[in-house]
Design brief:
The complex is a heterodimer of chains A (438) and B (557). Helices cover 32% and strands 22% of the residues of chain A. Chain A is α/β, with parallel strands linked by helices and 438 residues long. With 557 residues, chain B is α/β, with parallel strands linked by helices. Chain B has 15 helices and 27 strands. The chains are: A alpha/beta (438), B alpha/beta (557). At the A-B interface, helix 1, helix 4 and helix 9 of A face helix 5, helix 12, strand 26 and strand 27 of B. Bound molecules: zinc ion (ZN) (2 copies).
Chain lengths: 438, 557
């Protein structure tokens, strides 16, 4: 196999001194064997693979993507600033054209962190991809971004943050939510009223193998990306679809991951989950790095790999084919849903219950979106957690129309602060973040 | 008395050191055809009228291994590679005469696939057919479990002149580099051993009967007999000798920069708290990336005799050297000519130097003095920029813990040491540009020989304790032993220190030079299904590069 080598940036930060708890899957050991493999295979000696030290994200970077309660400093540790900083470094290297693509092999992960953050859920405190994407938009003026979440768990945090943003295409491919945390990510979840169709969920049945993943990639994800024409493709690269992962039920292989990244050809990949730290991660990461760098990955194989025992059933293959056809249809007809869904109302409202499994916090949220033909629409959030915190947030979208901006500013001015512990204004368009408190 | 000799590419330097002082020194041109002639010349000169019984040791730094590799005077080597899954064979170094066989040990040293003896026997037959006498055996992750390399070696027993095993040459991870290192070790093995026998004979003939040491790439020494198995450790010992020489003369305990400015090139090295920085993975020679621990140096193509040309009104200095300075009978203007015009040095014919600068000035539309100033400024700017970028690179080296990220050491040099021909005239301006005071050590012209004479014996040792599998592995020794489940990091450190002490003594170290330090100590919980099943403990100990006791305490030669 001859390929054209690409210059790949590698931001490796295994955080060997950080864990959620000593035996937690998100612990010091997690990237240890990946480091062993990367070093032993001599990947850093390749002239087209360049390692960079991660920078540190700032509170301003986080406030562009999140409403942290009560503030960013109190929901994060240094490790989160470094892992988000690693993703930002990856973006900088790609957008300054120092490299062709980059892989942020960092921890802790972030794709379960939602817009409002009361604590940690699904091992995540802040959404490192979203922090990175908002950084990119501010510093490089990029508008259309596609995030393809290939973690085995539904990327519910990323979906939440970009629910109302038609400029961010969020595609999540994951194990069916009826069988796995966080229990969401069904086809019907398609985005807010002004961004209908730009959230795409592709649940796959348990025991899907390479064949099923690659079929979905070729027949749903790639054609949709082709239509959307993003300026940047980001892979939320979870590795827990692997057949040896202890907390999921899929049958994806290291070679499958390499093939996926080769064909998807992301500009930036960011590590998410993946907890088979010995049997999967060293080989999966090796495959992804080689594929991104345009090097031959044909010999990448887990020592215990056995294609025959991992084959998916014919019935499962047919189910995936039907689902993929349905996804294509939903994408094609995305413009027709809005009228049906919102009718003549000026505002759309949804209620959400959010559970922070890692920190044991429950939140109830009411999200109100202004129906708008001219922009992503003003978003208003009233959120109450059982920590006692109740907050209100006004979010003015990027490229806001004059009406959404005016209404947003008015709302922020007149929300009575007595009722809430904090009232936030996140003006994504003017990169302005304000807080009022009693 | 210590006799230190550096057989360099152009000169052979030697010093005789007594009571912490340079008693005698000498320098002769190196006889490339017969290195023994150069040795004979310097020893005869230095030991004349000396009482040989006062001699304690002889330390030798030689270009033999480096030259053999650079000039391709190497033997054909048959490589048997246990490469397992991962990188395809086409991306590995050493393609010629390489055979890939079945077998694999993983990152924890667990055997995942067995060796097939038939394949080894077949490879052996084919190598003998090709009349190959030197063999290298290298396995992926063999530093985590040396057994498979050992199995292959046993199967080859008696069929070849010599066999090298990868795990013995370095404890570091990096399979491609392990291949290159093992290949080089074997490719120069025969030539090196012949040379060592000649040296031993020569020394005996001189009536000298003291331990002989050889300088390694990391600026440490090892006993001559011990060096026979590891010739590749002696590559690039020249730059190491020079840096150790500067270290000995400078008595430096702080962060510092060392510059060796020659005629063609300038070599830069860095010290952190007085200890020379090492290459993180290993040194590179002739494009071979190795695992050989070596001092970190950067060479730029700019020296006192670099050719100066003017293109589009801009100065181009180096990287070519056409000959000596114009003032010394050379063919073209050089930085040295500029320094002569500026009155910074008194060498050469000043009127010729002015002529050279006049020529440069004419092309740049300026007078003689202005041209000389411009050349000198550009020379200093290029060197200081290279120093700054090297420091930056060191300070931006990736780290893997939050602690290091937040509190990691930053290198901030406090002194600039300059040796080499143009050291005197160039040091003041470099010091200004870098904002640190410059110092020119004494005896700089024989720095290499002094460095060799005063270097201590060095080694490192890599330990991996896996309390789930209950195995302790020491890569460089090819050693494994069972350990109890309650084995701790402290146990690993203790065993590492004890065994390293024995090892360096075996390599010729003196008791008073055994400064052992722990350079890595990490411990990870291994967890299965939310229960801790054991610990993965990683320890590295070393005797770091430095000077022998007495000198290290601040004695000045
Ligand atoms: Zn996951
Ligand atoms: Zn609007």
């Amino acid at each position: 196999m001859t390929k054209k080598p690409r210059k790949t940036g590698l931001i490796f930060f295994p955080a060997f001194d950080w864990a959620i708890s000593p035996t937690h899957p998100e612990r010091e050991e997690r990237l240890l064997y990946t480091q062993d493999q990367v070093f032993e295979e001599g990947l850093l000696d390749f002239e087209n693979i360049i390692e960079f030290k991660p920078g540190m994200a700032t509170v301003e970077d986080i406030n562009r993507a999140h409403i942290c309660v009560p503030d960013a400093r109190s929901v994060i540790t240094e490790s989160h600033l470094i892992s988000a900083g690693g993703a930002i470094t990856a973006a900088d290297k790609v957008l300054r054209k120092e490299v062709d693509n980059a892989f942020a092999l960092v921890r802790p992960p972030g794709h379960h962190a939602m817009l409002v953050v009361h604590g940690a859920r699904g091992f995540c405190n802040i959404n490192i991809e979203a922090v990175m994407v908002e950084y990119i938009r501010k510093h490089y003026g990029i508008r259309k971004v596609a995030i393809v979440d290939t973690d085995c768990h539904h990327g519910d945090g990323t979906q939440d943050i970009y629910w109302n943003d038609p400029d961010t295409l969020c595609i999540s491919i994951h194990q069916d939510g009826r069988t796995l945390y966080p229990g969401t990510g069904f086809q019907e979840e398609m985005g807010g009223p002004n961004a209908l169709g730009y959230t795409i969920n592709i649940p796959l049945p348990p025991r899907t193998s390479d064949e099923g993943f690659l079929y979905t990639l070729e027949n749903a994800i790639l054609p949709i990306l082709d239509d959307f024409q993003p300026e940047l493709i980001i892979n939320s690269a979870g590795q827990d679809n692997h057949y040896s992962d202890p907390i999921t039920n899929m049958r994806f292989s290291a070679r499958g991951y390499a093939l996926l990244n080769d064909r998807l050809s992301p500009d930036i990949a960011v590590l998410e989950g993946g907890y088979s730290i010995e049997k999967a991660l060293p080989y999966v990461n090796m495959g992804i790095i080689l594929a991104m760098a345009g090097l031959d990955y044909d010999s990448v194989r887990e020592p215990d790999f056995n294609a025959e025992s991992l084959r998916q059933s014919d019935e499962l293959t047919r189910k995936i084919e039907r689902d993929v056809a349905e996804i294509r249809k939903l994408w094609k007809n995305r413009y027709s849903f809005k009228k049906k869904m919102v009718g003549d109302s000026r505002y759309a409202r949804r209620q959400k219950g959010i559970y922070y499994d890692t920190d044991g916090i429950s939140e109830h949220q009411e999200e109100t979106v202004r129906i708008c033909e001219d922009c992503g629409g003003l978003v208003l959030i009233d959120s109450q957690a059982d920590t006692g915190n109740r907050i209100y947030a006004v979010i003015i979208p990027r490229h806001a129309c004059p009406t959404c901006r005016r209404e947003g500013e008015e709302f922020y001015g007149k929300i009575p602060v007595q009722q809430y512990s904090h009232v936030y204004l996140q003006d994504r368009d003017k990169d302005n973040f304000q807080v009022k408190s009693r | 008395m210590i006799l230190g000799i550096d057989v360099g590419g152009t000169h052979t330097d030697a010093v005789l050191i007594e009571n912490l002082h340079v008693k005698r020194k000498t320098k002769v041109p190196t006889d490339e055809k017969n290195l023994l002639n150069s040795l004979l010349a310097v020893t005869t000169d230095l030991l004349k009228d000396e009482q040989l019984e006062k001699l304690e040791r002889v330390v030798l730094s030689t270009t033999l291994s480096t030259n053999a590799i650079v000039q391709k005077k190497t033997d054909r080597v048959g490589m048997i590679l246990i490469s397992g899954p991962g990188l395809p064979p086409s991306l590995l170094p050493v393609q010629k005469d390489s055979v890939h066989i079945r077998g694999y040990s993983n990152h924890r040293g667990a055997e995942m696939a067995a060796i097939d003896p038939g394949e080894v026997v077949e490879a052996s037959r084919r190598f003998r057919e090709k009349e190959i006498q030197q063999i290298g055996v290298v396995g992926k992750f063999s530093t985590r479990n040396p057994k498979q390399e050992g199995t292959v070696r046993d199967l080859l027993e008696g069929s070849f002149q010599h066999v090298s095993m990868g795990h013995r040459l370095s404890g570091h991870l990096n399979f491609p580099r392990r291949i290159a290192t093992t290949y080089l070790n074997e490719s120069i093995w025969r030539r090196y051993n012949t040379f060592i026998s000649q040296i031993q004979g020569f020394v005996r003939d001189q009536g000298i009967n003291v331990p002989i040491y050889i300088l390694k790439a990391d600026g440490g020494t090892f006993d001559i007999e011990h060096s026979r198995e590891f010739p590749v450790q002696t590559i690039l010992s020249g730059p190491a000798a020079s840096i150790m020489g500067i270290l000995s003369m400078a008595r430096c305990r702080r962060d510092a920069v060392a510059l060796d400015i020659g005629g063609t090139t300038t070599d830069i090295a860095l010290f952190a708290d007085g200890v020379p920085l090492l290459e993180p993975f290993g040194v590179t020679i002739e494009g071979h990336k190795t695992l050989i621990r070596g001092l970190k140096t950067r060479s730029i193509g700019l020296g006192g005799d670099s050719r100066i040309s003017v293109t589009d009104g801009g100065l181009q200095i180096g990287p070519v050297r056409e000959g000596p300075a114009y003032a010394c009978g050379g063919p073209c203007p050089t930085p040295t000519d500029a320094m002569i015009v500026l009155g910074l040095t008194g060498i050469g014919d000043a009127s010729l130097a002015r002529k050279a600068m006049e020529d440069v000035g004419r092309q740049m539309g300026m007078g003689i003095e202005d041209a000389a100033r411009a050349v000198h400024e550009e020379t200093c700017r290029i060197i200081s920029a290279a120093v700054t970028s090297m420091i930056e690179e060191v300070n931006n080296k990736p780290v893997y813990t939050i602690h290091e990220m937040l509190e990691g050491k930053k290198l901030v040099p406090k002194t600039l040491f300059v040796v080499g021909g143009p050291a005197e005239p160039i040091a003041p301006r470099l010091a200004e540009l870098l904002g640190i005071p410059a110092q020119i050590p004494e005896h700089a012209e024989v720095a290499n020989a002094i460095g060799a004479a005063l270097a201590r014996t060095t080694a490192e040792m890599t330990l991996l304790a896996d309390t789930e599998q209950r195995i302790l592995t020491i890569a460089e020794d090819g050693y494994q032993e069972s350990i109890p489940a309650r084995f701790t990091k402290a146990d690993a450190i203790r065993i590492g220190q004890d065994r390293l002490r024995e090892k360096v003594k075996g390599m010729g170290a003196r008791e008073e030079d055994l400064e052992i330090e722990v350079i890595e100590d990490m411990e990870f919980n291994m967890v299965k299904q939310f229960y801790t099943t054991g610990k993965n403990i990683r320890v590295k100990v070393q005797v770091k590069p430095g000077l022998i006791a007495g000198f290290a305490a601040g004695g000045k030669p």
